[in-house]
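can u do me a favor
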């Protein structure tokens, strides 16, 4: 991560009578803070580097080896296909700013992109981040980037670079925004495709950790503004503070799912995958379906984290809840019926909570919630 390129040169007023002491810092951009921030995060970023990362931090671009050397790497791709994703954390950053807790939203940032990338069957190779702030606070940026590093370590990818932009005229004091970009690779013959899914396939759901990173405009309006709940308040229905529940990071499903995919090299046992983000199950499951198949989801076939019960009690109808939130399922896999048991047990051994939540049938590419 480097400071905004505009912050590399000090500003200077040229109008007649301009004070000779005018500096970039007097305009709200602090070059010294940018340098301190880079010094703080460099050791964190290097933790994600492996033998495929070439060079060190500080250049204008990062370099990553795509062709594998048998002496260094366990796998070689015969027909590699690059896959890429970009996403953000949305208004969850406002909850983090309000609570003064910045160490988890970086994990969310990585999760939102690498989980999307995973649905192709690909492995994340490297990640880039973009952080925009009103004022650069090196300690706060260190917390944010430490979360990005933890997310990259969990996903097994390198944090190859990034950008930090200090823009006092665009962002309010204390506010910031995040964007992330992931690049991965998949063997062409192993890529996921809707054509693999067929009637009779079982739908396995992997538990979410809570709200993840979608629906926070509704959460903030309902719980913080209208209900007036405090983030520091410990709620009996949650058995934790509201901040703990809302800032719990998005689960990263990369390692368990990749392990399950690599376990079965013959005919595909896992035929489709979906990351359950904004739109919930009804909005995301159709993205893995061929046009002649539906998915029937069995309501009540998995437990819902308490935070969703809290949100619902403040006036959100059940249909709207399922349309906005993941409702406890963060990732879904279509699996051949004879393989559902063995795939589910493999995912459970990797630490996932797995539920049989539905089945594929002939249809028109839709989802039915029963």
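np, heres the sequence
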């Amino acid at each position: 991560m480097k400071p905004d390129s505009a912050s590399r040169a000090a500003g200077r007023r040229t109008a007649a009578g301009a004070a000779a002491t005018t500096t970039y810092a007097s305009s709200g951009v602090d070059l010294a803070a940018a340098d301190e921030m880079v010094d703080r995060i460099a050791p964190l970023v290097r933790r994600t580097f492996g033998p495929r990362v070439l060079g060190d931090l500080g250049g204008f671009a990062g370099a990553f080896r795509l062709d594998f050397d048998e002496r260094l790497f366990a796998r070689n791709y015969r027909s590699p296909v690059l896959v890429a994703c970009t996403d953000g954390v949305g208004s969850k950053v406002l909850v983090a700013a309000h609570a003064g807790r910045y160490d988890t939203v970086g994990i969310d940032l990585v999760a939102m992109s690498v989980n999307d990338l995973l649905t192709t069957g690909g492995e994340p190779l490297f990640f880039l981040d973009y952080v925009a702030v009103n004022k650069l606070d090196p300690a706060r940026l260190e917390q944010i980037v430490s979360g990005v590093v933890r997310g990259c370590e969990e996903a097994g990818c390198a944090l190859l670079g990034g950008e930090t932009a200090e823009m006092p005229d665009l962002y309010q004091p204390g506010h910031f925004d995040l964007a992330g970009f992931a690049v991965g690779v998949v063997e062409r013959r192993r890529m996921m495709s809707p054509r693999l899914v067929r009637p009779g396939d079982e739908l396995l759901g992997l538990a979410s950790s809570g709200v993840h990173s979608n629906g926070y405009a509704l959460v903030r309006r309902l719980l913080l503004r209208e209900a007036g709940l405090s983030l520091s308040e410990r709620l009996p229905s949650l058995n934790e503070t509201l901040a703990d529940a809302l800032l719990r990071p998005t689960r990263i499903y990369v390692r368990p799912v990749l392990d399950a995919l690599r376990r079965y090299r013959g005919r595909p046992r896992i035929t489709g995958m979906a990351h359950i983000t904004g739109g919930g199950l009804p909005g995301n499951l159709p993205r893995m379906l061929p046009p002649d198949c539906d998915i029937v989801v069995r309501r009540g076939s998995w437990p819902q984290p308490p935070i969703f019960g809290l949100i619902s009690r403040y006036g959100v109808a059940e249909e709207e809840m399922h349309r906005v939130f993941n409702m406890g399922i963060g990732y879904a896999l279509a699996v051949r019926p004879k393989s559902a048991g063995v795939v589910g047990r493999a995912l459970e051994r990797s630490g996932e909570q797995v539920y049989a939540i539905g089945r594929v049938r002939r249809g028109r590419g839709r989802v039915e919630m029963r």
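The chain has two domains: 2-12+19-190, 194-369. hope that helps!!
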